[in-house]
Structure formats: C-alpha cells, structure tokens
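Quick one, T. Sequence first:
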Amino acid sequence: MKNLLFTFLADEEGQDLVEYTLLLAFVALASAALFIGAGGSIKTIWTATNDQLAAAATSAS
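Structure tokens:
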C-alpha cells in the first residue's frame, strides 16, 4: 500500500493538463478584466459616433 501511494504521488502524467487549464483560466480572467476596463471607452466612442451621425443626418435633411 505504501509503495502504491508513493507511485501515485510521483506520477506526473496529468500535470500538463492542469498547467494548461490554469493558464487558460488566467488568460480568460485577464481578458474579462480588459473588456470590463475598456467598456467605458467603447461606450464613449459609440456615443460620439452616434452624435456625429445624428448631426450629419439632421444637416442633410
């Protein structure tokens, strides 16, 4: 039983999968943080664009 436990603890076969999963989780969290942070900037750009298009439509009429 003791030998089986040591063999199990020394086995590193699934280590790559765990590392890639942790890396993917980090990338997903970092991306979400960037999207949340950029949300205000994107809203400002869309608002300015909408205002310019509305003004152009009004002056063209």
